[in-house]
């Protein structure tokens, strides 16, 4: 397990000395999100001569895809737990991007702002302001305002969760959460793990957990394997994806991990709760799975009881649109039950000066995200009349890559739909909104009396989605419970993209720091 | 008598509730769901404390009693009715003198007021050193969408119908009297009376009915914190809020109202901007509200803001609602322009509209007594808007 020594790059100093001053100067472009899309976009824009802010809430660049412990936290992480080749794909690309960014940081064209959480953005006469809080010295929180002519939002996506009885027990995580624990700190979350949901993302999580000693006792894939045969063309045009899948298949076979298709986790129970589900029961101990009919209804008599101390569930991902919606950005049906930013062939949104790349335009993976990032950056260079435009041939190739990967993502979504009848797994007392403890029964009853037309209305009437997570977790599920099947989930507009202390806001509005 | 109420916000719901209770045949028409407009964008204020003596305060006092009745009838839990009381504090001694004078005028108009020397005894977490304030025990709070939904459900139990659709024109008969409303999908709903309860969109609806009234939007932001254990007992606001409510200034005004709710969150309102229907986020407004709230309650500095929302208050040029029959189109009644007071004034408005349709008093609303809010005040002779 050869740990790439400079996964985090050489820029170990987290905050260059002149950062404060640089933050105050207007730049050409703000890129929000330093995952594959944002890094690729920033690198291209910088190479083209622009001054760029690259902002990320994490302590290190890389996003979820290249998530890794920050440089300064490495000492505390056991060596064998450090990010390794089997967790991170295409580290060569990461290192190359990182080297480009580091070089531009030295020249002063790039201002890299890590641990900066963007809470809102606003359009101004000459571009955008991006309002963030600097948490690099947490718990201290300092408000920061960045100004630039153009804004590129590459904030990625987050796990789509579907509730089931017992999903709120300790030990039940999202598949993405399990992987983030592995990547971020080498944490193997449990000893006996059951994974469930749909989509190929379950496979790398299973392989990585098994590779680190966890017993993955089952992977429950809701889709039927034959679903792929209906859309072979995009798959054939993306041989790299084949190779990747084959690699996981080998790993899963080596660890004798059973993959059960057309199967779902339909409930979980906690320790000592056999037959007596009580408040405050302990960590998850048992899951029940069932084979699914074509519409997702559990088939009677197919239930299995599996002992497990950890459950990872992944139903695909939801584009993170929080910064885009308040700017009035147009949306498009992403084809997987979600909506995404509507963009043209140059990744321009419907708002002048606003660009989007990566999973905000629909979930499709890191390679697509990077291509979109580069295409978006070229549009920014063009629109700002920057000198350093790359050749048209390279751009055309990049756009072809985008088209090929988009087609693949659409085929993937069609092969791995949400089982339409998943709400059949819920009992009326299953919690749907964990923050506000709203049950499926409460949501169903406002739907039944006709007063709730969508998840926004359900929120007003039941408080589902009003708590700490603001419906990021329960929104897609509540949507499925009340909306027509063909209507994709559009998140509620959130003017505050991340919680921020009133004190930090108060100080930002009062430069004289008058706290009296 | 067939009544079509345009708008299923809090005012339309209250009109439907009272009209159906009085035995009228009611249809409520809205293009969207219940309370989806300005109703869902406010704090749920039922305030007497911010009102000057005059026709609006008269309606507010009636409305306050009718909120009590609605809570008795429908259950206070149904819409989180809470008679928590308001505390208005002065920031400086000269402000306190003005506040006391204001409160004395309100007391003369039968508002219950109590002068408070030590505001810390009312609100233990309030900033130290404030010179004093006035306690208004009648100020109260509801969750407005739940309230609109509850009133509408009660109206439906009394025979009212709710339809989704958009009114596009009035159908008139002899003497220009209204006989129905035409909807966007071509349906004509027969009506002897049509109530314009379209809130901020009341100006447009009035135009479509041939009875234009000037209703303009005034944008406001409300901030919502993370849930906390109870820290703030009343609706607390600084005395300059009163001045801002009544102000006609074009620019931004903020004077924060801070209060806890049953869900544990703290609501911080309320900015006022005249920017048309511009929905853009204004980070400067959020920062200003945050700063004012932290000055009133210093512990808020460490509390997280998790949400903000904004809406458009419907206001008339003289900042009074327009409630009553339109003299130009017989059968049209206006019930809009309540600005930031629509929740508080809704039941009174519903009762007054019902009384006007009946031609006799209804639940304490007397058409002969409440004349200060009639549409006539905007019209020159001949019916042209002033």
Automatic annotation (TrEMBL), chain A:
<dbReference type="InterPro" id="IPR017224">
    <property type="entry name" value="Opine_Oxase_asu/HCN_bsu"/>
</dbReference>
<dbReference type="Pfam" id="PF04324">
    <property type="entry name" value="Fer2_BFD"/>
</dbReference>
<keyword id="KW-0560">Oxidoreductase</keyword>
<feature type="domain" description="FAD/NAD(P)-binding">
    <location>
        <begin position="28"/>
        <end position="371"/>
    </location>
</feature>
<dbReference type="Pfam" id="PF07992">
    <property type="entry name" value="Pyr_redox_2"/>
</dbReference>
<dbReference type="InterPro" id="IPR041854">
    <property type="entry name" value="BFD-like_2Fe2S-bd_dom_sf"/>
</dbReference>
<protein>
    <submittedName>
        <fullName>FAD-dependent oxidoreductase</fullName>
    </submittedName>
</protein>
<dbReference type="InterPro" id="IPR051691">
    <property type="entry name" value="Metab_Enz_Cyan_OpOx_G3PDH"/>
</dbReference>
<dbReference type="InterPro" id="IPR023753">
    <property type="entry name" value="FAD/NAD-binding_dom"/>
</dbReference>
<dbReference type="InterPro" id="IPR036188">
    <property type="entry name" value="FAD/NAD-bd_sf"/>
</dbReference>
<dbReference type="InterPro" id="IPR007419">
    <property type="entry name" value="BFD-like_2Fe2S-bd_dom"/>
</dbReference>
<feature type="domain" description="BFD-like [2Fe-2S]-binding">
    <location>
        <begin position="432"/>
        <end position="482"/>
    </location>
</feature>
From TrEMBL, chain B:
<dbReference type="Pfam" id="PF01266">
    <property type="entry name" value="DAO"/>
</dbReference>
<protein>
    <submittedName>
        <fullName>FAD-binding oxidoreductase</fullName>
    </submittedName>
</protein>
<dbReference type="InterPro" id="IPR036188">
    <property type="entry name" value="FAD/NAD-bd_sf"/>
</dbReference>
<keyword id="KW-0560">Oxidoreductase</keyword>
<feature type="domain" description="FAD dependent oxidoreductase">
    <location>
        <begin position="3"/>
        <end position="355"/>
    </location>
</feature>
<dbReference type="InterPro" id="IPR006076">
    <property type="entry name" value="FAD-dep_OxRdtase"/>
</dbReference>
